Please model this.
Amino acid sequence: MSKEFGRGATILKSGNSCEFYTGDWKVQYPDHLKDKCKNCMMCVPYCPEDCIKQKDGILDKIDLDYCKGCGICANVCPFNAIEMKHKDE
Amino acid sequence: MAYNLKEMVNKKSRLASGHRMCAGCGAPLIVRNSLRALKDEDHAVISCATGCLEVSTCIYPYTSWKDCSFLHTAFECASACASGASKTYEKLKRENKLPQDKDTKFIAFGGDGGTYDIGLQSLSGAMERRTDMTYICYDNGAYMNTGTQRSSSTPHFADTTTSPAGKVIPGKVQPRKDLAEIMIAHNIPYVAQTALIGNMKDLYEKAEKAIYTEGPTCVVALSPCPRGWGYPTEDLQKISKLAVDTCFWPLYEVENGKYHITYKPAKKLPVEEFLRPQKRFKHMFKEGNEWMIEQFQKEVDKKWEYLLMMEEITNK
Model:
């Protein structure tokens, strides 16, 4: 029997939905303007997809593989350091 | 410990990317940030009532739940399952069959359909049996998963597919049910009402208090739904702020019967400000429908005055 699934075909891996990329849903994408960003971290808890990654208090990157382009991050940013752009740009 | 946003985002996320909630949904924010209130070393058992959250976080063969045990259960069973698991855990721990130094917390999530309507009996039962668990309801005010049917949490006059506003009825005919008050009537140690505002301090602190208070606790969180409410996805924070500032959704907690309003708006806005951006209330701004706004305002004021009064009386 394959080890990918348990008895009764239960899912064995935790959090394996990150193998499913939802990034192709979006029509607009967030562009992080590093020079304006003050690393206040406001956008991090507001991302429904958890795709704004930070490391040691510095905003690292926005993972566009999962971003659905909702634009919440651009709206909560107090410094306008995230700009929404159309995906064809 | 005082709340610090930078420390909070360093805690581990227990809801992974790749779930299929709509863009701009409030529910994953409520789930992720309230689970961040758990200590990183603690384990969690989550049970979930059917709803947007359940059907889009575990689409076979994927699951978005990370570092926690997830119980996939029926619509009305979220609290019954969490309650049973919690009691079993207590028994096994008492019999020394589980490590004594590790802690497991039991949390149930439900939408407003699975909490206000279908799951109310099991929730009430679990609260009455004094199970050590936390129930977190993300309230988006209708059955959004199946196409915006009215639920008992839908606000008065809201336009939904089963209460369509038109010549015959003015949207939903009845005012909404108040779950927090029902929970308070169970005399449980902690009940709170929260929303996604500011830097998530309110949600985080209330979730932390609820999870680490012994006994049954309940948190009701307002979860804006761009599809059902009819507002642009990016305005999530704005719309929750308006709900709080107009006192449509007051933020308060009740600890052992003592009311405490955690946020009092400096200037209470008229309720129109909250209604206007949403398509589900569009008909209320048509000519001849002013009475709806007036009545809505009256209901909001009544609730707010009741809360102010209760805060004064219970803290004497």
